[in-house]
Amino acid sequence: MRRTGRKTTGSRSSRYGHFSADGAEYVITNPYPPRPWINYLTNGDYCALCSHVGGGYAFYKDHRFHSVLARGEHQRTSDLPARLVYIKDEDTGEIWTANVHPIGKFTTFEARHGAGYTLIQSSYRSVAVQLRFFVPQGMDAEMWSVDLCNRSRSERRLSVYTLAELALGNVALVQHEPFYQGLFHEARLSRNLLTATHKFHFTEGWSEICDPWPLRVIATSTCPPQRMLMDRAAFFGAFRGHHNPAALDEEWLPRGAPTPRDLVAVNQWRIRLAPGESWQTHIALAVQANNDSTSHVAQIKSLRRPATYERAWKNTRVFWQELFDSVQIETPEPDINVMMNHWNKIQLITNFYFGRAPSYYHKSQMPAMRDCCQDAFGVVPLRPELAGANLRRIARFFFADGQACAGCNRIDLREKAAIKVDLPLWFVLAIADYLRETGDMGILDERFPLMDGGESSVYEKMLAGIDRMIGLRGPHGLPLIGGGDWNDPANRIGAGGKGESVWLAEFVYLVIAEIEPIMRAKKDLDKLAVYRRRAEELRKIVNEQCWDGQWFVRAFRDDGQPVGARGQEEGSIWINSQTWAVIADISDQSRLNACTDAVERHLGTPYGLTNLGPAYTRYDRSIGRITCFRAGWKENGAVFSHASSFNVVARAMLGRGRDALDLYRRILPMTKDSTRYFMEPYVYAQFCAGPAAGHEMGQGAYHWLTGTAAWMFRAMTDYIIGVRAEWNGLRVRPVVDPAWKHFKLSRQFRGSRYEFNFLNPRGVETGVRQIILDGEPLEGDLIPLPTQPVHRVTVKMG
Ligand code: GLC
Question: Are 35 and 75 in contact (CB under 8 A)?
Fold first, then answer.
């Protein structure tokens, strides 16, 4: 068993835990933090949410339709069902859970979340237990290892039980009508093997019946249990629960119904341990196609051999280590290093695979196009080939007229056209970024089906999206906001067909700048001229009609009235029309700086920036749902991490290094007081409550799944440390806190490694005096494309 971790990253710890010495693990030392602090164990297809006490659920590819482990009360404060390990002392009859929760008896406890795994170590009555949960690369399964040691001076007679609750197929239906859905279960128990599936599978509405669930779940272990049980009702009994399952009253697990409605996978081992003696078993819950392939039999056999688990464990560690290595930084700030080198990447990859869907908050959310494109953008420098594959998949979710689908699921379901109008433009941004990183221009000509029939190339899809947006103009000449843009719940500004978005105008302006080099390469000059004219028009309108003296208004409603304008009692300033004015470079420096100052003045808090201010307290039908959230919560005036992270980029683009880092630090999760914030200190949450939330200000919500992961990552590499992929090389423009005298970045680029060493002896915010590339001085700030496996670059600021 492993020793307790030391705290040497220098990153701050909380009352409930700390980072491990190398920063790769978060160690939770108290089983009762303010909320379940969870981890995602995934290989990109099988995904297990696993809290510090083993809580959570699991699914394959899509949490809505391919559920595996039951999703119970996993809402915010609750954490059951879980992957539970019960221990019964056969001499005294006492029962406890090695997870600690839910029975709560323990002498020692420590949980470690790492990349792809969670370890729980606990002891009680001198029985020490280590539970290891992980999801291997290359196999759709979750693997559990249970390791017990008798630390007492006498022989112990114990029963060990493992419990996994299954919910197969469409999770919403299973939860809505559990008894009815149970009638479709089909399960078999044979020695050391449980096989279960669901005979009917609904993917869309109640009325649409598809074929049987195409998957099945198997459970087996390396150490054959003396008893197995799959009948949930027989395990818990009536009026009993996870604290006191009825089956544990007896010497042996009961047989249960031969074809139970509600399924569990329970094992029982009765063991005797001499003093100091250990016992171990590995268990797998695997997903297989529901057919009789011989490879299934081979897989089951291999899952009964301990070597399989150890090999899978090693491969999984190697996968994550390589991911960590692809981009590494070293700055004077341990909190930033620990996030950037480990946890920001783990969070980013999780978002990249599953969008904003499966967490302890959302239940029915789908992977949405806007989010998927931003996550692909985030992943580009880390794993360009994965980002490219995902962008190719997303390319299937468009219509001929340039509309995009709201969702882009991973299981080949049809999707409908989105109400939100900005979606196709995020695809252009992500593709442009991918091209600068990889030079893979061939992707532009690859053809993919359209939702409404036929097919088109990636390039044609990009143009169709822009064409459509250029065509949708309102009374001021700005883009129509339709059913809404980035700010989802501001959904009624354009309900009457006339409302316009200033943010969208800035976004279109940026997208045209992004696609320009691509269109030049394609020699599409006539169309480019049309786009450029539209861009200039937008610049003029935004500057002449949307500048409010100190900031840019956010939108115009159907009746022509501005949203987010000075003098308004509520919602007088919205963050994104300021931030994206800077990112798009749509105005002069003095206005861009002025609106950035206004953001800090009106929206700044110790935790980051609120989305707008003052928060709305009265429902305004002409703006939408945003105005009826509780004031200070969610988009209505919460400190919104995603929007704050955009603003870090804006600050850096203005050369304001001190300001950019000041905001960066405020957004970092471990800089927040856990007793107020509640959320995990190792990953970003979507928001924490803003000043209008009164005494609840600072309380976090919607953990893990947020575009913040992508933007905080790129804000640091591309805009603060300032190494950006361009068409012909890496542009170097550091914008830092003057206190940063020395910092490093190591990243891959076009198949080679670049080791950057930054020196800032005079303590400037920005400006490069000299660049030395492989020992030779370089003219300018563009590092050319690689010519050898490793390039060393010294950047002297000043
Ligand atoms: C959530 C959504 C994202 C949206 C944002 C603001 O983060 O995932 O798509 O842009 O909220 O509404």
Answer: no
Measured CA to CA, the distance from residue 479 to residue 474 in angstroms comes to 6
Q: Which of 350, 351, 352, 356 to mutate to test the pocket of ligand 1 (most atoms within 8 A of CB)?
A: 356
Q: What is the pLDDT of residue 2?
A: 45
The domain in which residue 788 lies consists of 723-797
> Residue 55: exposed, middle, or buried by beta-carbon count in 10 A (0-12, 13-18, 19+)?
buried
Distances (CA, A) of 367 to 49, 378, 382: 16, 16, 21
What's 64's domain CATH number?
A: 2.70.98.40
- Our mutation pick for probing the ligand 1 site, out of 488, 504, 579, counting the most ligand atoms within 8 A of Cβ, is 488
The Cα 98–Cα 119 span in angstroms is 11
Q: Measure the CA–CA gap between 214 and 230, rounded to whole angstroms.
A: 21
d(CA 236, CA 244): 8
What confidence score (pLDDT) does residue 211 get? 80
* 135/49 same-domain check: yes
pLDDT at 74: 64
Q: What is the pLDDT of residue 8?
A: 57
- Any ligand 1 atom below 6 A from CB of 359: no
- Ligand 1 pocket, residue 356 CB under 6 Å: yes
Query: What's the pLDDT at 4?
Result: 42
> What does the alpha-carbon distance between residue 96 and residue 87 come to, in Å, rounded to a whole number?
5
Helices within 24-84 (DSSP H only): none
- CB of residue 487 inside a 6 A radius of ligand 1: yes
pLDDT for position 362: 85
| DSSP calls for 688-699 | E--GGGGGGTT-
Please tell me if the CB atom of residue 468 comes closer than 6 angstroms to any atom of ligand 1. Answer: no
Is the shortest distance between the CB of 488 and ligand 1 below 6 Å? yes
How confident is the prediction for the chain on average, in pLDDT?
Answer: 95
- Please tell me the predicted confidence (pLDDT) of residue 77: 79
pLDDT of 1: 43
Dist. CA 421–CA 93, nearest whole Å: 62
For ligand 1, say whether the CB of 371 is within 6 Å of any of its atoms.
Answer: yes
- Look at residues 678, 698, 720 and tell me which one is the last residue of a structural domain: 720
Assigned domain for 436 exists: no
The alpha carbon of 346 and the centre of ligand 1 are apart by a number of angstroms equal to 20
SS (H, E, C) 76-102: CCCCCCECEEEEEECCCCCEEECCCCC
Q: Which residue's alpha carbon is at the smallest distance from atom 10 of ligand 1?
A: 486
pLDDT in tens, 207-247: 455 688 999 999 999 999 999 999 999 999 999 999 999 99
Q: How close is the Cα of 602 to the center of ligand 1, in Å?
A: 22
Beta 67-69 vs 156-169: how paired, if at all? antiparallel
At 731, which CATH number? 2.60.420.10
Q: Is 97 in the pocket of ligand 1 (CB under 6 A)?
A: no
* Prediction pTM value: 0.97
- Count how many Cα atoms sit within 13 Å of the Cα of residue 358 in the half-sphere of its side chain: 35
Q: Are 411 and 61 in contact (CB under 8 A)?
A: yes
Residue with CA nearest ligand 1 atom 6: 487
Q: In the chain, which residues have pLDDT < 70?
A: 1-8, 74-75, 204-210
What pLDDT is recorded for position 204? 67
**Other beta carbons less than 10 A from residue 330's beta carbon:** 17
| pLDDT score recorded for residue 769 | 97
Q: Are strands 639-640 and 685-688 parallel, antiparallel or unpaired?
A: antiparallel
> Is the bond preceding residue 214 a cis peptide, omega within 30 degrees?
no
Q: What is the distance between the alpha carbons of residues 362 and 22, in angstroms, rounded to a whole number? A: 32
Q: Are residues 513 and 606 in the same domain?
A: yes
Does residue 706 line the site of ligand 1, with CB under 6 A? yes
